[in-house]
Amino acid sequence: MDQRKTVVVTGFEPFGEHTVNASWVAVQELEKLGLGDDINLHVAEVPVEYQAVQNLLPSLWKDHLPQLVVHVGVSGMATTVTLEQCGHNQGYMRMDNCMFCPVSRCCVDGGPDCIHSVIDMDMVCKRVNSSGLGVSVSVSKDAGRYLCDYTYYMSLFVGEGRSAFVHVPPLDKPYSAEDLARALRAIIREMLEHMETQQTNTHCLHNP
After folding, report:
1. Cα(153)–Cα(44) distance, rounded to whole angstroms?
2. How far, in Å, are 24, 67, 71, 112 from residue 74 at the CA level?
3. pLDDT tens per residue across span 52-106
């Protein structure tokens, strides 16, 4: 019987000025690199469409039964690899690639305003930064109220907090796709280790 852990990692398709989306390029590089023999890695490209995310996210969790789902997105403002601590339910007003925006401006009607990952991103950040990786990692609590934040919230909601979101800078500003893949590999392995020690704490840490 396969005792390996299962991890799903997603990147996004191109949108706006990001005609090549660094997140999906980095995830494809990560797929080549792998997460190690003890981990089954599945990757998927996520459309920059609210309705597609609503359909795709539950099926990723159901089909793969992963221990962890990590979503990777690009941020034109980022200069570091940024770990997002939480996803937000409301405030979605930007049109997606289909020129659609949720009428309710939210992800899940009646859902909590904010859901935190069960992973302590500050701790993961410190450990990766002290590992001599050569890629700078930081932590954020605002994923931007667009498809990144929307996807993260949906995944946290469906996966009961066992999800993570990583923002990467555009390619070569300053990191190559290979640099980003190495950083993602280190981050994800650190997250899994952290989750193993935190198994008693599997509930959502969102505000009541």
Report:
1. 17
2. 9, 24, 10, 25
3. 999 999 999 999 999 999 999 999 999 999 999 999 999 999 999 999 999 999 9
Sequence-ordered list of residues with C-beta below 8 angstroms from that of 39, at least 6 positions apart, any chain: 4, 5, 6, 7, 189, 192
Is 141 in contact with 85 (CB distance < 8 Å)? Answer: yes
Which entry of 107, 114, 125, 148 is annotated as an active-site residue? 148
35 has pLDDT over 80: yes
pLDDT digits (tens, 9 = 90+) for 129-165: 999 999 999 999 999 999 999 999 999 999 999 999 9
- Output 106-110 pairs: Cβ under 8 A, ≥24 positions apart: 107/150, 107/153, 107/154, 107/157, 108/153, 108/154, 108/157
Please state the domain extents for the chain. 21-197
21-197 topology per CATH: Aminopeptidase (3.40.630)
Q: Is 148 a catalytic residue?
A: yes
pTM of the model: 0.93
Alpha carbons 20 and 14: distance in angstroms, whole number? 6
Q: Of 129, 48, 115, whose CA–CA distance to 82 is shortest?
A: 129
